[in-house]
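User: Here's a chain of 288 residues. Predict its fold as tokens.
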Amino acid sequence: MTLARRFMELAQDFAPRSKINPRVKYGSPSQPARTQESNMKTKNASYPGEPGATRLEPKRGGQLVERMFSGFGHTTVLGTDQVERPSEEPYRPLRQSKAGSGATYRLQNQIPELQVQATSPATDVMTDLSRVAAVTIDPGANIDKAQKTMIARGVRALFVVDEERTVVGIITSNDVLGEKPVKVAQDRGARHDEVLVREVMTPANRLEALELQDVLKARVGDVVETLKRSGRQHTLVIESGPTDSASATRTVRGVFSLTQIARQLGLPPQIEYDVARTFVEIEAAIGG
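Assistant: Prediction complete.
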């Protein structure tokens, strides 16, 4: 018997056993799963000398032939096809209900903010900008707009960005409400509301930042000590590129805020914000 003839016989032997209609889904209304399974078992049982007549796998010889004709590694075995296919059924409205007599609705309580300790991971108090949108302002905006934005968004600092979303600086509530605007207005003979953000902000080249890889190994107490030594309310967390250098682009991944840390330590909010007092209260809370 020639090799070619043997392959042809194997192909004929395999065909009636492995042919499965791909359009018929098992358990579908058109053909119940039990009936299809029964049919498959009957076909396998009709071949004598094959151990386990109800086994659904085809013979190795048949698999070889099928791979030759339909592509390497492509086999059709019942119950192993896990590729998700788009549903052919039309979209249907979900069931709705109304509150019955005497029933009421209650709003879900807000999940409390994560409470931390000095030894908690530093990332517990970091505002992750991959999850929370950064609040920004244009450098040409006036400081009144900056203050209104802070109040509206409930923050004490804004990222100052240009048209290309490049961070050119940071402006804080102290920059807006402190002595800076007064001095700028006096120096150029302008009104307070004419002072621009770029004139009182901390420029990007003067910003101090922490590396994300260091933050991932740090504790809340380490961050507090860092802010205390720098005398700042905020510090950036940056993620440097693969070729870190003085001119490389650095992605601002997050920010630490003194008020955020105080809040998560369970300290009551201050009516009039005082940086020095906040540091004292935080140190007392963490035992510093």
